[in-house]
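check this:
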Amino acid sequence: MCRHTDEGRNSMERIGFIGAGMMGSGIARTLQAAGYPVLVYKRAISEDDAIIRELRNQNIQLTTNLAQVFETTDVLLLCLPDSPTVETILLGRSGLAAHEKRTVHTVIDLTTAHPDSTKRVGIELEKLKIRFMDAPMTGGPKQAEQGELGLAVGGPKELFETYTPLFATIAKHFYYAGPLGCANVLKLINNYLSIMNTCAASAAYALIEQSDIEKDSFYEFISKSGGDSKGFQNIMTRIRKQEFPMGFALKLAHKDIGYMKDLFDRSGGFPIFTGTCAVMDQAMDDGYGERDMREVYFDIKEHVKSIS
């Protein structure tokens, strides 16, 4: 269990958690089960909400008061949709930085955020002597519940080492990426490769469906050839079963692609990436934002013409 000894502190650290949705609730429950005292912020608490019931069943303390989180916990974990939300929570008018009575001394941001935003936030928090790490995740709700996420972590190396026990509680594997912001660059590269793979495999299968090729032969041939990949197997499992459980909303994938575009544009652009952007823009325009990322297959399928 992490203990913090700076400035006379030598007690078990209290965890504040903001962003307890499909992913965050599993992480919060994993931490509580491991013995960390956890306080979860929710904008509204309704007993009709399955996530609220799951948190209560594990005796996790809930609050609708941000100030309570900022002023009664030591380490703040964020699991939010995007950089503007992170900036509002940490630097906004009612954010962490505005609370003079704050007790939070370390922030670990699990959000997949824009690296530039991460660095800006870090500079402002450093002025307040609040330590900051970016620690974006890989995995889904199941991995979050089982403490088997993947993490890339950016920030001071010694801070990463201090919180290794916490990372080991929620993640099966975690890696130090480098200074603040590096973890988000690494995560965005991962997401780009994953999203591109999903789009490419979806387009390939949509093309097969418009041809006379035996679908099972297509799958078996690719699976035993150089075109196989983890991404190919993932999307093909969903297509073959016609099951697309929500794991990663397409709107969040689109957000990540937008952040990655900023990075690619600085390096002069990349034609293959441009095509992936176009596919994701099209899916958003066609109303797929709230659906699982892998359902981009259906949107691609709508635009593929017969080759027979």
Summary: The chain has two domains: 6-180, 186-302.
